[in-house]
Amino acid sequence: MALGSVVAAVTALALLILIRFLYVVLWSGKLLHGKSQKTYSTLVILGSGGHTAEMLNLLSVLQKERFAPRFYVAAATDIMSLQKARVLEDSLVDVAGVSSGETAKYMQIYRSREVGQSYITSVWTTLVATAHALYIMIQLRPEVILCNGPGTCIPLCIIAFLFKVLGIRWSSIFYVESIARVRRLSLSGLLLYKLRVADQFFVQWPQLHRKYPQAVYVGCLM
Asked: 7-20 b/e with 16+ CB inside 10 Å = b?
């Protein structure tokens, strides 16, 4: 009798999680529509090289008064990206006269795997990086996540999606595939696309849109 009750409880819980999962997938991307003037705390995930350049170019046309406060996250070994983000935010302070401490915060996250690192040791670093990503998401609980391909976005976006399914926090995830990806998605993009983690998935080339029809073609943003 006790075993039957446990099985029934587990089955009911699994059914509830499945229903919640389907609800999240159905309503993803629909909650920022409309003319609401609400502000949204925003997590911006940066990556070395071209990823950061493209993201900062995107942020330059963002309605910054609506997407605030902004939290910038980059890999622990990527110092330049956060410095560039500070320069962008400082330029906004100069124009708007708003205190830098009130508009943005900057933090680093551990990488799951460094270039050239062995796969055996990367198991441990992946666990550490995932735990750190969980800590960041619990601390920030952003309403919007912006990313465009760096590997550091994967644990953060997966955790944000799980938070939605569990009803902890609804974070709208917007992924913009890099302009360098003309015919194939990056590994990060492919994972988020196939798992349907992103609320809105944007591509910048028509070839990609034809290959991945659930993505939104927006043209070149650079």
From this structure: eeeeeeeeeeeeee
Over residues 132-181, the pLDDT tens digits come to 999 999 999 999 999 998 888 999 999 999 999 888 998 999 999 999 99
Report yes or no: 199 and 174 within 8 Å, Cβ to Cβ: yes
Residue found under tokens 């330059």: 60
What span, in angstroms and rounded, lies between the C-alpha atoms of 42 and 35?
18
Cβ within 8 Å of residue 28, ≥6 positions away: 164, 172, 173, 196, 198, 199
Q: Which two tokens stand for residue 164?
A: 């939605």
Q: pTM of the predicted model, to two decimals?
A: 0.85
Task: DSSP letter for 66, please.
Answer: T
Beta strand extents in 9-82 (DSSP E only): 42-45, 70-75
Confidence of residue 18 (pLDDT cuts 50, 70, 90): confident
